[in-house]
Amino acid sequence: MLQLRQSQSLQQRLTPQQVQYLKLLQLPILALEQRIKSEIEENPMLEESSEDEEREDQVSEDSAGDAVEMEDSPELERPGAAIEGALELTAPDTAAEHALQRTRENEERLREAQTEPSNEYSIEDYLNDDTEGFKTPTSNSSDEDRDELPRAASESFLESLYNQITMLDLPDRHRALAEEIVGSIDEDGYLRVPLEQIAHDAGVSFGEEYTTAEAEAVLRKIQKLDPIGVAARDLRECLTIQLDVMSNHNPAREIARHIIHDRFDDFVNKRFTALARHLGMEVHDLKPAIDLIQHLNPKPGAAAGDSGEGVHYITADFYIEKTPDGKDFTITLNERGVPPLRVNAAYKDLIRKQAPEHGKSLTPEAKDFIKKKFDAAKFFILAIYQRRETMMRVMHSIVTHQRAFFEQGEKFLKPLIYKTIAEDIGMDISTICRVVNGKYCQSDFGVFELRYFFSESIPTHLGEGGEHSGGEAVANKVVKSRIKEIIEAESGGDPLSDEKILQIINAEGFDVARRTVAKYREQMNIPVARLRKKLI
What's the CATH number where 485 sits? Predict the structure, then answer.
């Protein structure tokens, strides 16, 4: 039986403008550049402003009465008063306080603009003003900085193999089978599909009947293509193929082939004593053969596919530099590729020519289109401005809490969580997550993702000769770094176990457990002591 009921509930919903701001906030600098270009292409009311026009606008700021302003938002029309591209950490933190106050006021205005359309900067204000209109703060970049660099043409891994197949002396019947084999190779260069299935699939595709022996013969020829060992079915076969093509003049070659063929498990598990006993040799005599095997390529496809197409270069979103006196830091937001934006003035002239006093009028559809595009441009510019303010506030707070790191290096990184930054700048934790995710800063000690500065705390105690005392907590990344240093300094012939590493760590004042040492070692992709053993 159907019933009608009424219920009352309280819900919180994000406006489209807030969603747009959050999406822009989580974009790194390169993605933001592409997003702005896309928005300019989609919205005719939005355009870039040149440097000459920006300088003219900067000079005209003194005459505030002639400037285009939102009734309640004069700061948004004064790019010079927003963020000058850098924020200094001074003792009274005056710049930070001003930025914080401006952003809070700006957020309040944004909420008011979303809930009270009557108080917005309207299309009529835009048309009645003689200036260039609503725009973003000035960027210090030039047009040359924003030019996209050409990318060199590259050949993929599979394309290289297909081209090499055409150079093989194969009949047309087997050439089709070779293409089927190459198409079944995975990204590491291995053939994981059984030859019986490949022969069957090739027969269905090309209307031929292939035997497994034919597929095996074609596979042997493909395995000799560049890179050597491609299309191997397992690691042992891949290494054996590479050893087979080596010169016979290398005395370690036959020993290496014997190790791979007969004692592969002993080699993988680094049971060098058992290997030497089986071969009737001394352990130190195995070193040339072991070194030869370790210099072979275990993933021919991965190496061949690294043609530059998959290389990702990091572009810093912030630059952290010391002030000339060396006492403070300057935080600069990287916006060299972000153009200053404004509302298109050409549309203002077009609309004026269509005004009733000129004997023309716009259709309701045209008016609705212009209003929507104008509002979209206005809120997009506002979101870009608010993104700048938020990012600078978060970065300023991070530098304040991690000042010892930026002054002295990685060993002085302190424990820090998102909640601390959120409470410091008066924002939600989710906002902090969006800012730090995928963003990088460049400092005197290298380029770091902002997430690097957040880590759990590890308690310390007074150790013999240790630097940490008094129970002061340190970041877990400091402990990870110390474990890595200990392992790198160990003897290859007698690697340290997790228990021995723990004893060293505890003696230096770090209060950790053995399972913590093992967990950190695994997170850094460092194998256990048995697999780190080397022949000296």
Answer: 1.10.10.60
